[in-house]
Amino acid sequence: MTERTHAPAHRSHRHHHWRRDVVELAALFCAVAVADGIANLVVHGPRGPVLLVASAVALLVTAAFHTWWARRHSHAPPPGSTAPSDTGAAGQAVTPAASTPDDSATAAASLWRMRTTVRDEPGSLAALCTALAAHEVDILTLQTHPLPEGGTVDEFLLRAPRQLPSKTLAHAVAGAGGRDTWIERADAHELVDPPTRLLGLATRTALDTAELPLALRQLLGRCTIHSIPATSLSGRPNIGADTPVEGVLEATVMRLRDPSGGALTVERPHLPFTPTEFARARALVELDARLGPRVPRSQDVLTLPEGNDITVRRADQTDLPAARAMHDRCSERTLGLRYHGPVADADRYLDHLLSPRFGRTLAATTASGKLVALGHLLWDGDETEIALLIEDDWQRRGVGSELLRRLIAMAVEAGCASVYAVTQASNTGMVAAMRGLGLPLDYLVEEGTLVITARLDKAPAGGLLPHGLPGAGRQPARRQQADSER
Q: What is the CATH number of the domain that holds 181?
């Protein structure tokens, strides 16, 4: 193929070879004639020596100017030009190493996410891009969301000069025909292209049922997600749980049928949802429905300071009988500190707490398989609650601290900015466990109820074991990977 490609050019080169020789010969004769004329003028003219000196000076000035010009522009290729690539031994082009951008220019730029609505007509997007270019704004990514009533919602990831305020950017967009413009700061994580991000969210959802609300939140940006069970704790049907299979889209509210029963409500008051976003969210929910219930089967075997071994693993609704048996072994004080209500209603919360749709639950079991502790990480709208229940005989042994550290690591992995725990001021064990995390804590006391909020932006970086089960804490641990059939 290479020979066929280059053969025509080779024949053309031989065909025009004699013409080039004739031109070169003619140029040589012209040069000889010009030189002879100049020599006769210098020798026989009245000012021959003066002309000779002037010609020498002109040549020296021209050579000096050429040398200066070449040194000034030798390191900067002209705009729009590309350096020729070298060719390797195999005939393949070797691309030169990409140059590193100027650090000062990168540091002087800001990333913005911008969404605006434009008319669906030729030239509208070009006018918008021209307005952004006038302010030296670089468009990194662009997504287009068609609207059923006409027009399109264009979502940009922009790199703008740091000194450019958002108001100036908004005015420029409005002058170019954009309306309902929304701008907020962005970070480097959003440089991932949308298809790659969607595939990553689909993979996380496929591995773990509890990932669906988190995946929806990352897909749709800042939003509040509520899981509405099909029935309340009293057994009555919940209002809003009866949602059509195809879902409902109402401007800033999205309702999707939960595959495990009930409904998922997504709210974003600051920005209406587009049909494209609704279709993406519905595709994730459909994937979850097709795969059915699934929980990662990783587990840790930990040796407590006193020498006993406990196993920490993810829990789900199949652990409901064991959790109820643990309730029966717990004292009324322990259940009261955990559920903040009538002890008789404790069992009614378990089905809700163990559902992966409402969060993640860790179970601690003994070597004989008896469940002795539960740790919950619960999605509460756009906030995250953390809770522990330790059987009386296993309190003050470090079980709660181990569960708490793992729940915090899971919250950090899920991108939560903070977690809060609701307890009583008399629950010194929970307070001590939260303080032992080494995180900034905020305390709020109202009528004997203590709310402790831990900020996770300063959480220490730690390794995570596969399937979302965080690594062991300070105690030695032996990690065991359970089979999928276990």
A: 3.30.70.260
